[in-house]
Amino acid sequence: MIYFEKSLPAPPSLEIEKHKNNGTYLKADVISQLKQDFKNKCYICENKALISINVEHLVSHREDIDKKFSWENLFLSCSHCNNIKLHHYDNILNCTMVEDDIENSIKLKVDPYPKSSVEVTALKNDERVEKTVELLNKVYNGTTILKTEEAETIKKNLLKEILAFQSLLFEYDELEHDHEDDLEEINNIKKQISRHLRNSSAYTGFKRWIIKANESLTIEFGSLFLEQESDTKTI
After folding, report:
1. Domain residues of the chain, as ranges?
2. Which terminal residue of the chain has fewer beta carbons within 10 Å of its beta carbon, N or C?
3. What are the residues whose beta carbons fall under 8 Å from the beta carbon of 156, sequence distance 6 or more?
4. Model pLDDT for residues 107-118, shown as the tens digit of each residue
């Protein structure tokens, strides 16, 4: 999970639908704005180009009209994550709230070879952090037989992304040491690395932790996203 800025104002249809007897938040403007805000990714697992789109409530509405139609409570998710979360995880970190500091509260790691389990680690002694870690462990590593199969599909996509990202890091390092005069190619690789670290990239949280966990990589590439984190904390 990474920080996403939630856009304002809310989609106009929410206020209109809220006052209908059978109103729905599943309107085109809501879905379109959610896809834009969350970069067409599930906010929980960070899988991209979703086939099964769910409009998820961060806090279960339980037929509370205000919660049901609150723009701040609506998030974009995949069916896998939504079905695991349901009403069981209302007390998790809010990735659209700067003060929740989602990217420095939880560490994400996966070893780049088949059948690896995803490691999700709490970095703060906090109940909401712990609940978020519990949810993410179930999302990435599975619970039931069916959910474990779905998690394996997510991890296959995750590993492809991580391997592609690591390949660029190795290529950049080789160019820096053996072909330091090839500035055009070095800059080209750095731009590709930068794209992987953007919010719009799949599984950005894992890639950023690869950088943050290595002092040399942090010095080289940390400015591509750490400045963004610093800016959001001062808002």
Report:
1. 145-233
2. C
3. none
4. 999 998 888 899
